[in-house]
Amino acid sequence: MDQHNHGTSHHHGIHHSGHMHMENEVNVAVDYKGNLLSIRLKDKQNNVPELAESHEKIMHLIMVSSDLNQFYHLHPVDKGNGIFQQEITLEDGSYKVFVDINPKNVGYQIMPIDLHVGHSHTQGSGDNHLKPDEILEKTINNKTVELKIDSLVTNKPTILTYLISGGDPDPYLGALGHVIIIDEGVTQLIHVHPVSDDKTVFETQFSNPGIYKVWSEFKFGEQVTAYPFVINVK
Questions:
Q1: What is the mean pLDDT of each run of 10 residues along the chain (234 residues)?
Q2: Contact indicator for 62, 191 with CB cutoff of 8 Å
Q3: SS3 for the chain, per residue?
Q4: What are phi and psi of 189, to 5 degrees?
Q5: How buried is residue 88: exposed, middle or buried, by Cβ count under 10 Å (0-12/13-18/19+)?
Q6: Conformation bin of residue 66: beta by default, left when phi > 0, alpha when psi is -120 to 50
Q7: What backbone phi and psi angles, to 5 degrees, belong to 19?
Q8: Among 62, 65, 54, which residue's Cα sits nearest to residue 13?
């Protein structure tokens, strides 16, 4: 299960990062100047890799502050020649960027990329001391999301079931929700989609024990809201 599963024929997949056995054949450069975030993609031959679409987009960019307090799920605009751009205002600080793409015919694994904004060059990540939530329930904008987890141990399937009250989620990027999971050290990302089109049930698997932060994204009307939870995998 520890694989980068983007297959277009496999509609409901898990996107894992951080497995070192796969050769990475795509170079990813990230730059931020004047409220413009730029991503440049080149393969080993300095060519622009062709990207397959995954959940209505050819690029999902996940960015978190190194302390995991700030979270962004972005879809930068393809400007051509391997350049993608996104206008965004970021506070000074250190960030980790995960570029979730599915290049055709070349090997790729998602790896965290350091981004420093302003004069702050403190790393922060790895020193986080997240406290697991005792109650897995959050209310934002009068919508309550409760997370039920069947098992939190390594190398076994984990089922995440979301109970939502106050409204029904609308389809967002081809699914009823998206779940982004990042470890406390900000070294790996897991991007999970629902097991079916009509359920807010997600299945994933953890290779390593530890503390993880889970952002559960649901769309109500025109508003996409990320509900954060902190869990402990044994």
A1: 30 49 82 95 87 86 95 95 95 94 88 88 63 96 96 94 95 91 94 91 95 97 96 96
A2: yes
A3: CCCECCCCCCCCCEEEECCCCCCCCEEEEEEEECCEEEEEEEECCCCCCCECCECCECCEEEEEECCCCCEEEECCEEEECCEEEEECCCCCEEEEEEEECCECCCCCCECCEEEEECCCCCCCCCCCCCCCCCCCEEEECCEEEEEEECCCCCCCEEEEEEEEECCCCECECCECCEEEEEECCCCCEEEECECCCCCCEEEEECCCCEEEEEEEEEEECCEEEEEEEEEEEC
A4: -130, 140
A5: middle
A6: alpha
A7: -100, 120
A8: 54
Neighbours of 118 (CB within 10 A): 11
Classify residue 188 by burial, with Cβ atoms within 10 Å: 0-12, 13-18, 19+. buried
- Rg (C-alpha) for the chain, rounded Å, is 17
Q: Measure the CA–CA gap between 177 and 171, rounded to whole angstroms.
A: 7
Which amino acid is present at 38?
S
Q: Give the CA-trace dihedral at 32, 129, 16, 74, to 10 degrees.
A: -30
Integer Cα distance of 193 and 131 in angstroms: 25
> What's the whole-model pTM score?
0.86
Could you report the per-residue pLDDT of 142-189, keeping only the tens digit for each?
Answer: 999 999 999 999 999 999 999 999 999 999 988 899 999 999 999 999
Take residue 134 and report the two structure tokens written for it: 């005792």
Distance CA 200, CA 194 (A): 6
Name the amino acid, one letter, at 63: M
